Structures are given as C-alpha cells and as structure tokens.
Amino acid sequence: MTLFILLIVAFLVYYLFIYRADNGSQTVTSKVNRCPNCNSIVEKDFNVCPICKETLKKYCTNCGEKIDVHWRFCPYCEKPIDKDVIK
C-alpha cells in the first residue's frame, strides 16, 4: 500500500512540476517572429528580412518611432498610418 501511494505522489509531482513546465515552455518558443513573405525566422528588431528583403518595419511620419508595417495606427502618437509611405 505504501508503494502504491508513493507511485501516485511521484506521478503527481512529475505531472505538476515537470510535464506542465515543459509544455508551457513550448508555447513560448512557438511565438517566433517570422517574415510574412518567406516565413523565415527574423528578430523583432529587424527592419527587413535578411533572406528576401521584405520590409518588416517603417518609421512613423509623425513621431519618427519604428513601427510594424501591418499596423494601422502608431502606438506612440496615435496617428493613422499612411500605407503608401515607407521610409
């Protein structure tokens, strides 16, 4: 009976501390920045993709902060982004 209880406790410890921790870290690594054109892994600070030279970042024409190409508004100055201007 004691061995059975120890096995149950070992399984619970494994599940709570090891199995769940390993699965939680996989969700963090799945949030990798990728190029929308060629799907290559890119750093979040890159302005262009080093593989296909797709523009990833541009500068807001109002405040000059670096912003994502797909954003519709600048999060810094709240100005709507003109899609034609890529600086």
Give the SSE order as H and E letters.
HEE
Largest sheet properties: 2 strands, antiparallel
Number of distinct helices: 1
Could you list the spans in which at least 5 consecutive residues all have pLDDT below 50? none
Computed Rg:
23 Å
Q: On the 0-100 scale, what is the average pLDDT?
A: 82
Tally of strands: 2
Q: What structural class should be given to the helix and strand makeup? A: mainly alpha
How many domains comprise the coordinates? 2
Helicity, as a percent range? 25-40%
Inertia-based shape: elongated
Note the beta-strand portion. Answer: 5-15%
Major sheet: arrangement of strands: 1-2
What are the key terms here?
87 residues; mainly alpha; two-stranded antiparallel ribbon; 1 helix; 7% strand; protein biosynthesis; DZR; elongation factor; RNA polymerase subunit RPABC4/transcription elongation factor Spt4; translation elongation factor activity
